[in-house]
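Memo to structure team: turn this sequence into structure tokens by end of day. - J.P.
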Amino acid sequence: METLREKYAENTRGTLLDTGLRLFTERDYAAVSAEELVRTAGLTRGALYHHFNGKPGLFEAVFEELERQATARIRAAIAPVSDPRERAHRGVDAFLDVCAEGPYRNIVLLQGPIALGWQRWRELDHLHLGGLVLDVVNAALDAGRLRPHPANLVARAFYGALTELSITIAETDEPEQARAQAAGLVRDLIGGVVTDAGPPSA
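Reply from structure team:
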């Protein structure tokens, strides 16, 4: 049974995560201080450092929670579909929908590379989304619908393309137009490596 101490710790951690999500969505990482985080949360600096070792740790925790939520949404979108090409289409559409939303756009795409550093950002993003892309590619391979390219290389190519497109969408002043253009482009890319039916063509 959960003790009162454990319940308090869980609530404290949740409060800090919620506060970090709100403030990091509203403003740039550099513009949010540790003091503001704890003051807004109604907690002490000690609580922030105990649970997250400071502002950088809290940001990373918020970042990872958004990535987990994004991955879950994409998996839910593709789960009802068995056709490999349609699974890929639905997965891309769900991913681009997530990219257009404020918290993911601001925290993961715009502030993430700055706050975490490019290498750490790429490591965490690939941890959550890279495996999902590979799963979709492997499903096409298992169904005999992937053209003769190494599945891991295809997954890397699509992951890289989606990463660059998502950042482009986040940075543009016309996100809806950019999203539509990106979706059309990725559909064409999918059509180039996933066959309509039957064994892969040479």
